[in-house]
Amino acid sequence: MxxxxxxxxxxxxxxxxxxxxxxxxxxxxxxxxPRWVRGExxxxxxxxxxxxxxxxxxxxAENLKTAFADxxxxxxxxLGKVGCFRRKGSISVIWMAxxxxxxxxxxxxxLAGKAAxxxxxxxxxxxxxPHMTLARCNGRREDIVAYDCIREIWSPTPFLPVEKALLxxxxxxxxxxxxxxxxxxxxTTRRGGR
Length: 194
Prior knowledge:
- The longest helix is centred in the first third of the chain and has 17 residues, at about 15-30.
- It is built from 4 helices and 9 strands.
- It is α+β, with helices and mostly antiparallel strands.
- Strand 8 (about 165-170) and strand 9 form a beta hairpin.
- Its EC number is 3.1.4.58.
- It comes from Dethiosulfovibrio marinus.
């Protein structure tokens, strides 16, 4: 049985991605313990689909194509505060909040969730919290110092538009995940074009 590990994401606007990449480079230079995300992997996940059978994956891709055929572009996202998830008292993930205007991004996540359920996948039980992963931690003291440091130096960005969503396949390898674009869904501009 062939399975596909995939997710739907919004790419981070280039000007914002460059700023975050500079932050990660600084973090990587000063702290070895967190496993920092590679700059080219920065994204906002709308829905993680997990490992699904090839036949369901094909149906999912078709559903997403239909669902995103006439969706307005996101007027703007901003990269806000730095936060963390904790597991058993230790920092497990360092992330950056993604701010949205209205509920534009949340509505895209809801569309992705509906397309997934219609393809036979389970519905997402956790509430959607727009964020971007910066690093995965190892439960070491240095993780806390790194978190405190980048939280201190980061300033929220202005809002910039997002004009497409991407269906990405993820292959896990010993040196980190490899992402490949499986589908690209342009979002309609406010003027009616693409």
